[in-house]
């Protein structure tokens, strides 16, 4: 075998292995689904924060709708990180501390429930920070740093 | 007051012995209870300086050390800085504490590796160091021995730090710029001296020195990246509104509704989320006043 051919084969083999690994990551339906779920939650936060900041007038219906989506989504979190679905931006600690992880999802559910129950602007503003704290409180131990 | 009377002698004798043993400057510090107002101010300095993270292992006793700090040169382990006399810094004097922060020098004269960010802490004012020291003395002692740093040759040579410091370290207390507002100066002090944001958010050269021409323009870390904080519209935070900054600093939310994870989430929880409204405003004003630097931070493919 010539040097050039050997190098070519090695490169091709390397590309195949790396490529397969990348595709496997991208195609894991559970990971893709939960990432979509997280993006959905982010979208609700983008509805809620302008009202919190006072950049948009408080709209009770919109706030309740967004908070309701968060409640439903939070309920899905424990199941979305089931056995054998390691990967994505999730840290392995989720699967070694699953009970704690699930309790943090419950904290989001409860905080979002209280936000959904707010019937005026003052109650909304009082309930909102706990939702943000629940998001951040779970991302700190269990989400990879952004890169 | 029975206790003070009863234990007055042994404490004094202990202090005297410490002075003899370590050749410390004599002072009444060891026998005095710290002033509560100073301790309270010191706790705020402690939060703003973010000491807790590096000096506390994951789920460990606060400030008893052990946290791994990964660098391209090896792993450092934050030391015990509780008031324990043997394992912590319980026998230190305020002057030794000030020297550690200002000059990066241990009480025994050895040089710290810059994983301890004295390159930033050197700017902390004498007044803040005094308050911080008052607070540190109230931290309960924890009997946890320090873990030796995991550094390979030649990075384990402490003496080499003399050369490193000559190249990359300028000691000195923060001096406000008289041409700038009090708010901007406070922001610069919070970001650059106490917050030591540049230690992660400024790129480093091959020798681990900060590239000051790209101040706060983002850095690459072993486990991720630290974004460009300058107001560059494409590669930095130029498009962020003041509200975006507030949400990030107070609760860790980015403008797309995502929440930061890992180290920055801890920084938000322990430091930026605990700043006063005025200090948050000062940090934002300072960051928005930085010269925009074009620098797209990417993790090198490994």
Overview features:
heterodimer, A: 147 residues, mainly alpha, Four Helix Bundle (Hemerythrin (Met), subunit A), 79% helix, 0% strand, B: 302 residues, Cytochrome Bc1 Complex, Chain D, domain 2, 3-stranded antiparallel β-sheet, 5 strands, 40% helix, disordered N terminus
Overview of the structural elements:
The complex is a heterodimer of chains A (147) and B (302). By secondary structure, chain A is mostly helical. Chain A has one domain (29-142): Cytochrome c/b562 (Four Helix Bundle (Hemerythrin (Met), subunit A)), CATH 1.20.120. Chain A is 79% helix and 0% strand. Chain A has six helices and no strands. Chain A has helices spanning 3-27, 29-53, 60-80, 93-96, 98-116, 121-142. Mean pLDDT of chain A is 87; it is low at 14-24. With 302 residues, chain B is mainly alpha-helical. Chain B folds into two domains: 32-168, no CATH class; 182-289, Orthogonal Bundle (Cytochrome Bc1 Complex, Chain D, domain 2), CATH 1.10.760. Helix content of chain B is 40%, strand content 5%. Chain B is built from twelve helices and five strands. Chain B has helices at residues 2-22, 36-48, 51-54, 94-103, 118-121, 126-136, 160-168, 182-194, 198-201, 242-251, 262-270, 277-289; strands at 68-71, 74-77, 150-151, 219-221, 224-226. In chain B, a hairpin with a 2-residue loop joins strand 1 and strand 2. The longest helix of chain B has 21 residues, at 2-22. Chain B starts with a helix and ends in a 13-residue tail after the last helix. Chains A and B meet through helix 2 and helix 6 of A and helix 10 and helix 11 of B.
